[in-house]
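Notes on consecutive records. When two proteins share a document, each keeps its own sequence and its own token line. Never mix them. Below: protein one.
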Amino acid sequence: MLGELRAIVEQVSNADTLDSALAILVEKIRLTMHTDCCSVYVMDSQQQNLVLRATHGLASEAVGKAMMPLGEGVVGQVAVREEPINLADARLNPHFKYLPETAEDGFFSFLGTPITHQRKVLGVLVVQQSETRSFDQSEESFLVTLAAHLAGVLANTDFQTVLQEPTKHKWTEAIKAGSSSSGIAIAKAWINRSTGALEQQAVEKAEDSEHQLQRFDVALEITRDEFHSLAIKLSEQLPKDVASIFDVYQHMLADASLAGDIRRKISEGYQVEGALRLVIEHYVQQFEEMNDPYLKERAVDVKDVGLRLLHALELGPSAEIIPSEPVIVVAEEVTATMFAKIPRKFLAGVVSQRGAANSHAAILARAMGIPALMGLSFNVNKLRGCELILDGYSGELFVEPDKIVRDEYIALLAQESELNSLVQQDLDKPAVSIDGENVEMLINAGLSADSDIAINAGADGVGLYRTEVPFLMQDRFPSEDEQYTRYRDILNSYRGKEVCMRTLDVGGDKQLPYFPIVEENPFLGWRGIRLTLDHPEIFLVQARAMYRSAIECGNLCIMLPMISCLNEVDEASRLLEQAWAEVVDELDLTEPPERPKHGVMLEVPSVLFLLPELAQRVDFWSVGSNDLTQYLLAVDRNNTRVAELFDTFHPSVVRALNQIIEQANLHNTPVSFCGELAGEPVGALLVLALGYRRLSMSSFNLAKIKYIIRHVNLSELAALREQILQSQSGSAIYSLLYEYLQQQNLSQLVRVSKH
């Protein structure tokens, strides 16, 4: 039945609506299993009823009307027990309940299985026959398998809207999505017009290669000018490190990258549109095959560049239609250029069917303070012209809201505006608590191909600078001079403030386009320090470039990623010492400055048992809480199936963080806390309660966390430490800290609890 199974799943997945998907399902199952009846009941969680949603065999007029209370009838028992029930004669079962409106008098045998998604029963799939017989194991397995596939389709459906208004297109409940940038927006949906799709371009040969190259050069120049003007426009609204996202785009248009590959295809005899399609699809595939979420999202940027080139080929420079009032931009895939096209005063929010928190669009949204939802499991074209309320805190989208909901969110929007003004007004002041304790506030940087990062207002320095982007955006390893120039410019931008640069963290899940690595489990593979120690020539060139910039600027420290054992630290330290000696010798320095400090990222659980030895070998530690949580809990935080298990407040994670700070104090080792946890109000309270006093986070969260620190008593937080460590669940820890936030009248900074 494998062939039939695939065919049914494919047809159901491609259906335009829930009703058509379920109609296809019940018909195909009935035919494939040779049964007399197949039905789907969907859970109405508000009413605690199972509603007949589709059938092929029962009375059609009962669809949407016949309801079975949860736990009643055999169907209700399937949902409650969360397991299949197979009966030769359902009427003999003590739970049997007859629904006269379904006209099921002639059916005796019954096989029902729950439709379950992430531990939640979404409905029940049932087959029935007029003869009295038990369904065999193969039939039961087939139905269970189909129900598992169906769960994915149903999980992406706005059930309550469908159940409450089965015949009208009326929105009664919020649509859930992934929050990529917090905040609230109220405005009309605005759908950007689209240009021709790349996949629709024919791949054909052309005899006039010179003419094709001329066409491409014109389109290339138009696109470069367009990106340049967009970058200038965004530079007035954003920090330079974020606005320089367009540097990435410009680099793609260089001859050493996309443009060069397109030229080569044209020279091979391809028509320019076909050459463009071949090259873009090749790059997109490379990025999409990467497991690292940030790099995977770069496929969106490549597509955007490709579409801009195609647009220039088709139409030349032409003005886009731009809204004249605040709108919520809605698209299947939002790109960075969409942000730049619309004046900031008209950009109220962003909704994207595809994308994630690591996309450049999401980065821009957070940097600009624009609420954004991504990963919307809904055809966004249906939102055209609708009034929307976007809740970036709870990840909810309200369509055509009623007056009560609208008035509530208007009030919340006014409160949010006041809060933002409040936390921003003292951004330049130090983060000193009520009881006089100072907390060092650093930022995480290096997400884009930046070479000129302006000092972030209010930051004491850079706690984590990612050096990967220059390596990722080239078709070869960057030279020592290229790296030196970039690092020098960055350090010069932060004169007097320390910049902690992480050595190259690629490999395995972060493949370089010119040095691909194929692994079955990249998260546990050849990456970070493992790769660079195996290739000391790469490590030494980067270390020399860093040291040359440090001698000139004097504010560098170096951090080693993905350390799992002491041998790695020893070998890396030896190479760093070698690189330093070489640089000092070549520069002929009679009195060389002190060598920059070097430390390690604590992100692999094995190092938690080596902290005393690590303290003897390095100058500082930095906690990489995202990966440490992922490895401790064995949960891929980017996997939607287990996303709810990724809990940064999990007692094991909290106790590991406590162990680190205790060992740091015992051995007098400076330790900073990097990771998104420190940028969340309740998460910041947690790490402060444990004793961390050096926090690094995205610049977007800096003002809010500094404001919180200035309004709390760290000695009071420290008094909660034992209670935190004795808690047996993440929700208990979260609630304890949230309650403290409420007591300080700061709970308004947290709109929605994750626990």
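Protein two starts on the next line and is unrelated to protein one.
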Amino acid sequence: MTAVTAEAVAKALTAGAEALLRRRRADGVFGDDPPASVLGTAGAVAALHAADPAGSADLVDAGVGWLLRQQHDDGGWGGVEGAESEVVPTAVAVAALALSAPATGAEAVAAGRARLAAMGGVDAVTDRAIALLCRQLLTMAGLTAEAGPLRRLPLEIVLFDRVRRRRLSFRTTPFVGLALMQADLLPAGRLRRATLRRARPVAVGLLRAVYDHEGRTGALSEDPWPAALVLLGLARSGEAPDIAEAVVGWLRRAVRPDGAWDAVTNLDLTRSGYAVTGLAAAGYAADPRLRATRDFFHATQKPAAFEVLDVPPGGWSYSNVGGWPVTLESAEILSALAGYPDADADPVLRTGLEWLVGRQDSRGSWSLWVRDTQLANDGPCPAITSQAILALHDAGHPDDHPAIARAVAWLLTRAAPDGRFENLWYRDHTSGTAVVVAALSRVGHARHDVVRRAARWLRDTQLPDGSWGPGDGTAGTVEETAWAVQGLLATGGPEHRHAVDRGVARLVAAAGPDGGWPAARVCNYIRHHMRYPNAVITQALALRALGEHRRAAQARSDVTPGTVAR
């Protein structure tokens, strides 16, 4: 049996922390080098070709060239560079090439259509909204055989704000873009035309509200994919030419040197929140290099309400002060702020915690954007709920705080029969299960039957090499191994110690020569259909797992310090 010494763990922590700190910019923000996105690029190419064919011909040509180079030998496309062929990016890339480069891309389109059919076509897409989107783009490109039946979007939903928020949530802007595209795809009868005349200015007003909230940048949530869908809708309908022009300008500013676009161009707050919690666990909470990051958190707390989703001020987005406020990043940032040495005197932490409590669903869960939403991709989510619990706990809220108690009661009803939990925004099921186990354990429920069963599921799904994957026997990742280690450590159960030690040894062994860890595609962009890596999250999770392991080992009096086995 090989052993990893406590000194080796400490060395991995120091090297990993310094590797992460090298990603810090002078303004305190942690940067990344994300892979280019097929969805973002295909959408941008199609939208720019429709909205600005002459002025953006250079961008369209470069994007088309990039898409052609990314096509796999099997004819399909992955969601991001390095990903295997998937239905959604293949359908969107085929449609974009057929629309914007019918001659240049003819051979690629033919191969893509064949691969799309081999993968089951759009019928294989489990997300109904994404399936409709694929059908609409294919229909626009004249590929009706691949598109299948296209249903009309009920644009009239925008006339009812409360219903629209709960049923559309963060998909409001791409929904409006798609609905505006349908004007010449699905002719309406007399009655429908009358209702659309009422709904259309309201829908455009929603786009304008987002546009104004973001400082009229045209970024539309800092994401080329929904920005492209909105631009397509505006180009087809002729509405809001000033917004269309701004989106074109933003896409030009956001393009990569290789002619592609990222999945999301700005995750500054996401990365920085994780970075600080990871570095704090590694013992760097008082490091002066993190002061600018706290200043960044203070400067980007939302000062105004986001009326489109009825979110009050006080939270954070994933990008900047003009972004859309979101529970997941806000909870992580609150945990980060709570880890600073003088957190008790931080007024931003206090107001952020009040905001987080106010965003709790009536059922006790937390959703991503809209309270009590009915949209499956927004919430309620066991992992987001657990992250909110951890933020409140990290900030010193008692275990019996009403918000924590209500969240615990909800979580205890959400386990699958085998004990696992879901995670909407990271790959199932190790991530969700581990975060729930950690949250419930830290607020006094480590010995509850639900937690014990979930922890046993984690232990039973550990792979022979000591790592964890998603729990289905496929290869392990640094991220899922780190999540599992944190979850099992939080229980304090001696029955999990061997599994934890093996996981820690695996993390130490997986570190590269520069101290960092390899990132895997565990972040969900479209659940079940597209994932991407985030290297800062990877480093932070590994540091948290190793840091918490070191702290637990130091606290134990019944184990001789020195080695952990693998």
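For the record: The CA atoms of residues 78 and 86 lie 5 Å apart.
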